[in-house]
Sequence to fold (213 residues):
Amino acid sequence: MDGLELLKKNWKKQEATLPKVSYDEIYKMIWKRSSSIVKWIFIISIFEFVIGVLLNVGLADKEYWNSLEQLDLKEVTIWIYGINYLITLFFVFRFYMNYRRINATSSAKKLMRDIIRTRKTVKSYILYVLISLAIVTLAYVYIIIYHHIQETQVTDNTPYVFDALDWLKFTGITVIAIGIFLAVIWFFYQLLYGILLRRLKKNYTQLENLDCD
Fold:
């Protein structure tokens, strides 16, 4: 049993004339813990953004850009990087605003609303990452295959002709591969943000019970 649960247990045993002080103590403990969690969500999002930029810059050498140019993907990739950076910065800003709101919270009901808002923001961010990765990966696969078909010159194209079953198999393998990739990303984000979200949910439940007591 943690310190908060002990405090709540002792509070319920006190006389009717003393609950206000204990209520405030319990609320402040939950508030501080929630504020710390949201601060870590904000800090992690900054680290994630910075590491992503550094990896993109570090891996994007001249050979990388030349290979993209040969596939007619250089311009598209630059646009994707730019849009992704802007949307990610928008979410980082939202995380920061959530942290500021919780720091300025003055009541249990408002704190509960702020916790719900924070959890929705994080879930929306994870959903954006998964959906954008799926769309970009599918688009790249299509463009690469289309470019290969257009550029490849062979005397006998019979081995390269796909019938309906071949396309079905290829589509199935592609979807499964992307699904596994997205599952790994989802699992990574569950480790990164999921633990903090579960702690926020626990705080919300404790506030709910506190408000009902």
In short: The two ends are 19 Å apart (CA to CA). The chain has six helices and no strands.
